[in-house]
Amino acid sequence: MPKTLGILGKKLGMTRLFADDGSICPVTVIEAGPCPVMQIKTNDKEGYNALQLGYDELKERLANKPQKGHQAKAGKGVHRHLKEFRVENPEEYELGQELTVDLFAPGEKVKVSGRSKGKGFQGAMKRWNFAGQRASHGAEKVHRATGSVGNATFPGRIWKGKKMPGQMGNKQVTAPSVEIVDVRPEENILVVKGQIPGPKNGLVVIRKNG
Fold it and tell me: Fewer CB under 10 Å: which end of the chain, C or N?
């Protein structure tokens, strides 16, 4: 498994920036961190090296006893989201240490993961960009149908993974190479080029490429 450090954040939305030459660059604004280290996992104890980071602090009354007990050791309150990141040397970090957008720099390429917008049950034309059936010459009530999906006697069934109507979206998606345009540590803001997965205010994970 790749050992890449990162932080958690939420997608605030999209806007645009103007370059010095007047060109327009579409960007996404992410509020990221600060993410305190809630637990340090080592190869000797847990069998692998990792940092467990917290994000989005909760009010004490909204947290249950297991959440409070697990996160009390770090002394940084209770957080809604916890996420592990594999690291090479966990001894370089301290319990309660906060990781911020200072991890990143403008021009750097990062991986951004989020849960895509759910679009419900959709047909094959919208879900897979199928062309549909003929619009004339005897075609009746099949204009948006997938067409034949069967086989001959062998194997006599639908192959697993066949492109068919079904649930669209609402799955984990990773944008593998997103360029950072601007870093604003005083506001905990990352500005990245283009779009990223997920809805407005959706949870995203920003990892360093490595």
Answer: N
- Hey, which residues does 58 pair with through a beta bridge? 78
- C-alpha distances in Å from residue 95, one per residue of 35, 109, 162, 164, 202: 11, 28, 47, 48, 27
* DSSP H or E run through 125: helix 124-128
What is the residue-wise DSSP string for 19-86? -TTS-EEEEEEEEE--EEEEEEE-TTTTSS-EEEEEEEEEPGGGS-HHHHHHHGGGTS-EEEEEEEEE
Q: Tell me the C-alpha distance between 150 and 4, whole Å.
A: 44
3 state DSSP class of 200: coil
The average confidence (pLDDT) of the chain is 92
Q: Residue 30 contacts by C-beta under 8 Å, 6 or more apart in sequence?
A: 9, 10, 11, 12, 112, 189, 190, 191, 192, 196, 204, 206
pLDDT single digits (tens) 123-176:
999 999 999 999 899 999 999 999 888 878 888 888 899 999 999 999 999 999
C-alpha to C-alpha distance for 187 and 194, rounded to whole angstroms: 20
Candidates 129, 119, 132, 133; CA nearest to 166 is 119
Rounded CA separation 180/197 (Å): 15
CA dihedral 200, 34, 176, 181 (to 10 degrees): 80
The whole-model pTM stands at 0.85
Contact call for residues 174 and 113 (beta carbons, < 8 A)? yes
If residue 121 lies in a helix (H) or strand (E), which one and from where to where? strand 120-122
